Amino acid sequence: MTRRLVVVSAGLSQPSSTRLLADQLAAATRAELGRLAIDAGTRVIEAREHAHDIMNNLLTSFASAGLREVLDAVAGADGLIAVTPIFNASYSGLFKSFADTLGNTSLVDKPVLIAATGGTARHSLALEHAVRPLFVYLGAAVVPTSVFAAPEDWAGSGDTADKALRERIQRAARELAVQMNHREPATVADPFALPAPFEDLLTGP
Amino acid sequence: MGRMQFGVFSVGDVTPDPTDGSVPTEHDRIKAMVTIALKAEEVGLDVFATGEHHNPPFVPSSPTTMLGFLAARTQRLLLSTATTLITTNDPVKIAEDYAMLQHLADGRVDLMLGRGNTGPVYPWFGQDIRNGIQLAIENYALLRRLWREDVVDWKGRFRTPLQSFTSAPRPLDGVPPFVWHGSIRSPEIAEQAAYYGDGFFANHIFWPREHTQRMVGLYRERFEHYGHGDADQAIVGLGGQVFMRRNSQDAIAEFRPYFDVAPVYGHGPSLEEFTEQTPLTVGSPQQVIDRTLTFREYVGDYQRQLFLVDHAGLPLTTVLEQMDMLGEEVVPVLRKEFAALRPPHVPDDPPPHPAVKALRPADALRPADALRPAETGR
Question: What stretch of H or E contains B122?
């Protein structure tokens, strides 16, 4: 069985700890999917690379071809890992702007793992009071475990997080993999498809 | 046979000229729209279409007042709208106003229906934007009956019922104006146009070509489904947006300050990005010709091309220069090229009103028609 895993990382610096966390979550999720005999193709989207197109979309109401392809990839994902830096007690503006271009149906019933990085551990609940409500509003099936990484969490050896973060990553990844395993492959609605023949439209709802 | 129609459509925005900060008054702008329409006839364009808006900074809230005035000042120009709000106008008033206009203009009238996307306009006129599609469907179904049946009994969801109502005046010679339905991305409206065998107009100018291609494709497919003809015989109109100077670098340099702060897309994509993503063409008349000819590659052979030339604070003199170039250099070539590519079974233009058709023999003398390839079956 194959499934599509898409990772959105909204880090601003390069290299970014947000991307580092995103990559570890993706690797852990792939491993968990592997245990369920699911081969997951993984696509990582750096929001920064589409920053201008995202803002242009907000201003013109249409996506450039490059951004369209990214939005279609998110809509077509069987599972999504969304990682944002925490700025001023919430998701970054770039992360929210990207979410605002998604459309209000593309995440419905989609398994989503939310994660964030921040300057201190005191920002960790921003995941619960800001990021989770956003995805719940969009109809996503957000897994119970969210993952927050503060600078001290990277204090393990080199690029490896310490034990508590590693365990949390694994638990969240397992939850996401199980949700992906429970669902049929994602289908994307065609916005130009006719909802009903005209006689039905004429008689009204 | 007729010929493909070219014209201009105006949104009627009052926008400061970003190069000198000057702002036309509403009076200036309204008179400028009239001047632009008269210029359209003078330079040999076929159509002038006015928008309808009920909020500043736009002036054209009363389209048939303006078009009635233009009817008296023109002889040949087809007067149209882009768009008439089928959601918030009373369909009874649309039936009356446009039938009256038909009489005054001796049939030189058609109209394009649209829903309008300015949220507050709906409640200002007693409606709700969430009913937009249903309003468009119910109101138009009534409008058709009012034009086609002398006495109408009617009851619906959005308007008070009608008992023994006769819309007056009756349409000129009993033939209602031709109707286009405009929509950017609502498949229901393409379906509506197809169901009735009406025209479909794709705004095209603020949106990527993929939207236009999908919407026109759906309309053509359903037009055939409902038995009005082959898909390629459906009646399609497109918007376009151009700015021209002899030298394309001059066109870009002059238009950029207007583009950069224009309503709708200003402060967003660069001129270069927007040119790539939408039909906007800024350059020489030849570049406009080349770009416009590519439209048929993704929508098929179509019947009406309207250009937006007068927005974003461009001075009237500049707009009139654009129209001279359209009339003298661009449209004559487009007429010839589009006609040469059009298969014989595909209509050149939307069905003309019989009163206008009666005037048609004079058309044969027009130079543009003489350019049409003769005796080739095309």
Answer: helix B121-124
Average pLDDT (B170-175) is 98
In DSSP terms, B50 is beta-bridged to B10, B81
User: Distance (Å) from the C-alpha of residue B81 to the closest C-alpha of chain A?
Assistant: 23
Q: Do B222 and A194 touch (CB under 8 A)?
A: yes
**Residue by residue, what is the 3-state secondary structure of B201-230?**
EECCCCCCHHHHHHHHHHHHHHHHHCCCCC
Residue in chain A lying closest to B141 (CA): A202
B376: pLDDT confidence band, cut at 50, 70 and 90?
Answer: very low
Q: Indicate yes or no: CB of A62 within 8 angstroms of CB of B134.
A: no
Interface of A with B in 3-42 (CB under 8 A): none
**Chain A nearest C-alpha distance from B277 (Å):** 7
Query: Are the beta carbons of B179 and B113 closer than 8 angstroms?
Result: yes
- The reply to whether residue B141 touches residue A64, judged by beta carbons under 8 angstroms, is no
The number of C-beta contacts closer than 8 angstroms across A and B is 61
Least Cα distance to A86 among A107, A114, A54 occurs for: A114
Tell me how close the Cα of B347 comes to any Cα of chain A, in angstroms.
25
Whether B179 contacts B110, CB under 8 Å: yes
What is the DSSP track for B62-111? -HHHHHHHHHHH-SSPEEEES-EETTTS-HHHHHHHHHHHHHHTTT-BEE
Q: What's the distance, CA B345 to chain centroid?
A: 24
Residues of B in Cβ contact (< 8 Å) with A56: 268-269, 273
Q: Is A59–B133 a contact, with Cβ atoms under 8 angstroms apart? A: no
- What is this structure's pTM? 0.92
Tell me whether strands B281-283 and B199-202 are parallel, antiparallel or unpaired: unpaired
3-state class (DSSP) for residue B178: strand
Candidate from B141, B208, B215 with C-beta closest to A202: B141
B223 close to B229: Cβ distance less than 8 angstroms: yes
DSSP character string of B314-359: --HHHHHHHHHHIIIIIHHHHHHHHHHHS-TTS-SSSPPPHHHHTT
- pLDDT tens profile B264-285: 889 999 999 999 999 999 999 9
Minimal Cα–Cα distance from A177 to chain B, Å?
35
Q: pLDDT tens digits, residue range B295-316?
A: 999 999 999 999 999 999 999 9
Separation of alpha carbons B138 and A54, rounded Å: 37
Name the residue in chain B with its Cα closest to that of A53. B269
Q: Are B363 and B369 in contact (CB under 8 A)?
A: yes
Helices B316-325 and B26-42, interaxial angle, to 10°?
Answer: 20
Q: DSSP string covering B252-266, please?
A: HHHHHHHHHT-TTTT
Q: What angle do CA A69, A140, A112 make, to 5 degrees?
A: 75
- Tokens 């509506």 -> residue: B192
Contact A192 B215 (CB under 8 A): yes
φ/ψ region of A105 (left if φ > 0, alpha if ψ in -120 to 50, else beta) reads: alpha
The Cα-based distances of B7 to B68, B327, B378 in angstroms read 18, 9, 23
Distance from CA of B65 to the nearest CA of A (A): 31
